[in-house]
Each structure stands twice: as structure tokens, then as C-alpha cells.
Amino acid sequence: MKAVHQVEVLDTPSDLKDKGIQKVAEAVNGLVADAFALYIKTKNYHWHMSGRHFRDYHLLLDEQADQIFATIDPLAERVRKLGENTIRSVAHIAQLQRVKDNDEDFVAPKDMLVDLMNENKKMAKAMRDAHKVADDAEDVATASLLEVYIDETERRVWFLFETTRELN
């Protein structure tokens, strides 16, 4: 009996070219790692928010964290639909994430909001870059998924930007 490699067992059939699939999977796995890291960072700031606008910011960040979290499974499943492996552990996330952690004991509310605005801006750019990779691979499904997430990410940037405008 011929031995079957584990990778072959997980290899989902696709009509896309192997080289394109690998590039899309790499780009999307980076987004999955970033989404996990941005989710945790957003929840960190949500839990540690303080100040006179506490309730508004606490609720805003909770809503944004939920939205970010909701992107993780569809993105990871997209990688699996392409027959590739996706994130397997927290260590794997740490290897791929571009979102910078913040382990400070205290961060001022405005600094939290500005940091999240900048991280979301970087996330939108990374999504647009991944969209280009998907377009080049003729992967319409991944590109379509990313279009919705780009819009949601840009909305988060907008809300965070507008929220910081009146803070001194």
C-alpha cells in the first residue's frame, strides 16, 4: 500500500494554478494573523479604557473587536478551500503578524484610539495588497471576500479618526 503524505490528505482540489494558490494563501494567512492580533489589541484597549468618554469608547471598541473577529474564520476557511494550511497556533500568529502588540500597563485613551486607527489603516493596505495577489491568481472568491472586509476596515478607520478629532 502506498504511503499518503499528510499534506496530500488536506489538499482540496482547485482549478487555480498552484503558484497563484500559494501566493494567495500566504497573503491571506498574514491577514488571519493580523486579524487575531488586532482583535486582541482592540479588546485590550476595550478592557483598559478609562476617562470621561469611557462608555462610548468601550462600546465602540467592543463593536470593532467583534467585527474583526468575524473576519478570521472566513479568511482561514478561504485558505483551506484553496487546499493550503492556515494558522495553527498562537506562535504561528506571532510569526506572521504585522500588528504591533502593546503590553503597556497604561495607555491614554486618545493614544489607544490613534494606535487602533493606524493599525486598521495598515490592515486595509494589507487587504488591498492581498486583493491584488488574488486578482493576479484569478481568485475571484478571495478578492470578493476582501472587498467587504476592506470597506469594514476603512469604516473602523473613519470612526476612530472622527473620535480622536475633538480630544486634546
From TrEMBL:
<protein>
    <submittedName>
        <fullName>Ferritin Dps family protein</fullName>
    </submittedName>
</protein>
<dbReference type="InterPro" id="IPR012347">
    <property type="entry name" value="Ferritin-like"/>
</dbReference>
<dbReference type="InterPro" id="IPR009078">
    <property type="entry name" value="Ferritin-like_SF"/>
</dbReference>
<dbReference type="GO" id="GO:0008199">
    <property type="term" value="F:ferric iron binding"/>
</dbReference>
<dbReference type="InterPro" id="IPR008331">
    <property type="entry name" value="Ferritin_DPS_dom"/>
</dbReference>
<comment type="similarity">
    <text>Belongs to the Dps family.</text>
</comment>
<dbReference type="Pfam" id="PF00210">
    <property type="entry name" value="Ferritin"/>
</dbReference>
<dbReference type="InterPro" id="IPR002177">
    <property type="entry name" value="DPS_DNA-bd"/>
</dbReference>
<feature type="domain" description="Ferritin/DPS">
    <location>
        <begin position="26"/>
        <end position="163"/>
    </location>
</feature>
